[in-house]
Design goal:
The chain has 328 residues and is of the alpha/beta class. It folds into 2 domains: 3-172, Thiolase/Chalcone synthase (Peroxisomal Thiolase, Chain A, domain 1), CATH 3.40.47.10; 178-327, Thiolase/Chalcone synthase (Peroxisomal Thiolase, Chain A, domain 1), CATH 3.40.47.10. The protein contains 9 helices and 13 strands. The strands form 4 sheets. A 5-stranded mixed beta sheet has the order 1-7-6-4-5. A 4-stranded mixed beta sheet has the order 8-13-12-11, sandwiched between helices. Bound molecules: oxa(dethia)-CoA.
Length: 328
Amino acid sequence: MASACITGLGMYVPPKVVKNDDLKAFYDTSDEWIYTRSGIQERRWVEEPASTAELGLYAAQEALKMANKKPSDIDLIIFATLSPDMYFPGSGVLLQNLLGLETTPALDIRQQCSGFIYGLSIADQYIRTGMYQTILLVGAEIQSTWIDYNPEGRTVGVLFGDGAGAAVIEATNAPGRGVLSTHLYSQGAYARELCVAEPSSATRRHELPGSYGMRPYMNGKEVFRHAVQRMGEAVQIALATQKWSPEEVDLYVLHQANIRIVQAIAEFFHLPMEKFYNNIHKYGNTTAASIPICLTEAWQEGRLKSGHKVILAAFGSGFTWGSAALVW
Ligand code: UT7
């Protein structure tokens, strides 16, 4: 049976660099607070107006180039974002159109920081059943337009960045290569611990302007606690399923929300931080784009080599979380 193999990777981040100190223009904050609490030094923000689908396009073009594929080779587009261009339809169809495609199916998924892991799992299943051979998976976000620039928005506002990452996923018959297993979880009991509640089907549009519900809310400590526990469990089940020891994995790529979360997981598994690919200092939390941006940079830096054992894991709003075990 064929399994799914990542054959192309690409990323795009807007050129505008926003340093921690730049945020002092609207928040009572400091470089020291942001860096020591999260590991972030700077992030990229789009200059308005911008489109999430367009950011996805730039990343997708790079990924297609690396995979030596044309847009017309794509059987399915999976688009993961929490910041779509429109309330509906999703950004997947917009990307499909930007790629010059006419009727290629496009599937949007709403799994926030876990979007890439969920998308990879979906792609893997389609490839295993033989329904599709070439899938484009994109995670893209424009978050600088939804964060709250009011003083009380500082806890969330300093953490998020804009960007996109993409992967071309193809069927391979090479034994023991590609995606070996994925594990997905969610827990809606915690949906309100990290959310932007509006626009909502429960609110009439004329009530929205200035509505508090349009501002992001995060219970940072609760999210942090669950992120460490749940991503740790997701890594554990990936290791157990593959019968891999923590040490024999060549590279761990965990969602970039806070370097302290990665450090806690590294400590739990008694692993050095060198086993983990991190770039949160440059981009902040780019939600669904975080893992594919990491993978792209890891590949460019020669940290992903043929035969490498790789574990991906993510946790975020929903709560949703999951992991994937791959052999590169
Ligand atoms: O991607 C989805 C998953 N997201 C996450 O995993 C994020 C998880 N949470 C976190 O990363 C951390 O909880 C934060 C980085 C958000 C916050 O770190 P913390 O160590 O939990 O800080 P805190 O929320 O307990 O805040 C400590 C203090 C508070 O002041 P008081 O009440 O102690 O006087 C905050 O008001 O820091 C204050 N504070 C800030 N100060 C300067 C909150 N935000 C800021 C800020 N600048 N931006």
